[in-house]
Amino acid sequence: MTPLDLHHLPYGAIGVDESVHLAVRVGDHALDLAAAGAGTPWADALAMPTLNALLDLGPQAWAELRSWLQETLPTGALDQHLVPLADVALHLPLEVRDYVDFYASEHHASNVGAIFRPDGAALTPNWKHLPIGYHGRSSTVVVSGTDVVRPCGQRKGPQDPAPVFGPSVKLDIEAEVGFVVGGSTPVGSRVTVDEAGDHIFGVALFNDWSARDIQAWEYVPLGPFLGKSFASTLAGWITPMAALEAAKIPLPQQDPTPLPYLLGKDLYGLDLRLEVLLNGEVVSRPPYRTMYWSPTQMLAHLTVNGASLSSGDLFASGTTSGVAVDERGSLLELTWNGTEPLTLADGSSRTFLEDGDSVTIRATAPGPDGSVLTLGEVSGTIRPAV
Amino acid sequence: MTPLDLHHLPYGAIGVDESVHLAVRVGDHALDLAAAGAGTPWADALAMPTLNALLDLGPQAWAELRSWLQETLPTGALDQHLVPLADVALHLPLEVRDYVDFYASEHHASNVGAIFRPDGAALTPNWKHLPIGYHGRSSTVVVSGTDVVRPCGQRKGPQDPAPVFGPSVKLDIEAEVGFVVGGSTPVGSRVTVDEAGDHIFGVALFNDWSARDIQAWEYVPLGPFLGKSFASTLAGWITPMAALEAAKIPLPQQDPTPLPYLLGKDLYGLDLRLEVLLNGEVVSRPPYRTMYWSPTQMLAHLTVNGASLSSGDLFASGTTSGVAVDERGSLLELTWNGTEPLTLADGSSRTFLEDGDSVTIRATAPGPDGSVLTLGEVSGTIRPAV
């Protein structure tokens, strides 16, 4: 195991015989935490099939566990609990409680505005004053590798006299970054920007699959519903925030200055360099560093009305899009709503996803001493509608 | 215990010593199901502090348990487990998984459209084609009797140069009916209108508190978020659908005819007669019979894209408003966004809720043989912002 392996230590859940055990990735092995953690102060939480109990223990326990792993792994005392990654199946590592999706990329929001509301301003008037978000469906968050069935639903083009029903013809991806929340708070309380760090356990790549035709017909006035709720895919390995200190960078300038509840000392962007692969070919390189809002601002906003947090909550950034055409994190933007098809290396072209298409999002981040972390990838393959 | 008591049998959760036990209401008593259910086929589920495990057992178990209660209670064999209602504290009877709020009242949607989008059509073009809905925050669903802290957030009037932050000045109620879901389904599957009945366990009154000023500023383009997520209050007693057969009535005519996936044999309205009380005074009598969409259509729509169900999911109808002014289920409508204040019996007036105000929603429904069921009420009192 290299120093970088010992620095990263992302958390996941693996199949062991007929059960699911928590695990931490150590290079090309997974450490079975249910076994390795027996007798430790975190044994009860580590014996669970999801991270929720560990998330509930809070940041001091997370730090102590991480230190113990970093000290104990090099001694070889845990080697008997290491399993080659090639031999393990990944499971969803948390029971997702409330899931909120934000909309934190200025370039994405501007592109979507220009496509869907061509006669108005690209950004809605509220966009630079608050991190826009909405609740999504937590029970359809699935782990990387899970097939995605093409959803059916209503769609209606502007010229159609009435809506029609059928499989979505505009199935899309959204390249996002998910943040896993730990530490429950009571209803009626608030988490400030500077307290948010105690509740953000880690980061995982996230694909918020979207049916653009279903979404376009349904979303006024109450927002996206069936266009999003059929599936969202989370990477199998969650990188702890503690491993991302070297990836923290200043935010883009926020103008106008946000209201005081969105300010604090702990404001940061993340230099995560995403790649979106369609059937193995890189079609986009969204730079997370361009995101407008800090994760801590998103969490402070989410709770400023007194909304409680639960261990296992998940919030995601919204689609990550840079300013360049080949940095856009959705096919909606990459093909400008299908009007500018992508040509792939095999000569085929795409506007939106076809049955059988596989999408993978991967990312790297700066690690300590000039090293480079590779985040757990998130992938999925489209199956035909049923 | 009367025949009507034995017919109704709503489910709840009560405090017993330091723990929470499931219970069924029998007239003015609560039957402790953890105690009474020992040794029965449902003992494990009945020993849990929430209904989720019972919900997971499905409709045959629900029917068998109900029959057993109806047969056993009159024998007196369970009398030792009856506790006077006055002596019990109610707890939230389910761990809410995904929570979806619909928008199924044509009168409510038309009123809101006329208030917020006066230059457009009152109903959006999609409204009569699909039951519009969105996901809400499940962790802030609280049980009747829980105080509600006035939320803070951003608001911006049309003439304001920039948003301001502070306690909501347009805190409102929404008189709704909630439907509790049982029986999990896999991601990628679909529940039809005629299968939906197997998944709708029961009905509970629901107050979806809303901060109209926060909502108005944030909701374009992704829908309501902090204007709703601070609290939603569920009645403590859930009336099983089996008790509401006599309350089922035909739906209002649906024109245009919905798409085939929204049709089936099991379409119904419910003749629930709601009353909204503000500080003890009835200010509205919303008739649920006027709702446009059947609960079975809402559930079929929710899953038509392959979204899975979990036992403990909750969906709500949206605000119940009749056509008459005094049948409107929100202060937004009753005072036409504050322009027509309500005068209360004590001589005071209201546009929106003031600190200290208490709101109760109660309802009756036709029972068997001309009897009248009284549903469990939902109430809450507004506490000042923190």
TrEMBL record, chains A, B:
One Gene Ontology MF term: metal ion binding
Cofactor(s) named in the record: Mg(2+); Ca(2+)
Keyword Ribonucleoprotein listed: no
Residues annotated to bind substrate: 103, 117, 215, 219, 319
Pathway: Amino-acid degradation; L-phenylalanine degradation; acetoacetate and fumarate from L-phenylalanine: step 6/6
GO biological-process terms attached to the record: homogentisate catabolic process; L-phenylalanine catabolic process; L-tyrosine catabolic process
Residue ranges of domain Fumarylacetoacetase N-terminal in the record: 7-93
Keywords annotated in UniProt: Calcium, Hydrolase, Magnesium, Metal-binding, Phenylalanine catabolism, Tyrosine catabolism
Domain Fumarylacetoacetase-like C-terminal: 100-364
Chain positions recorded as Mg(2+) binding sites: 208, 228, 232
Record protein name field: fumarylacetoacetase
NCBIfam families recorded: fum_ac_acetase (TIGR01266)
E.C. designation(s): 3.7.1.2
Active site per database record: 108
Keyword Ubl conjugation: no
Binding-site positions, Ca(2+): 101, 174, 176, 208
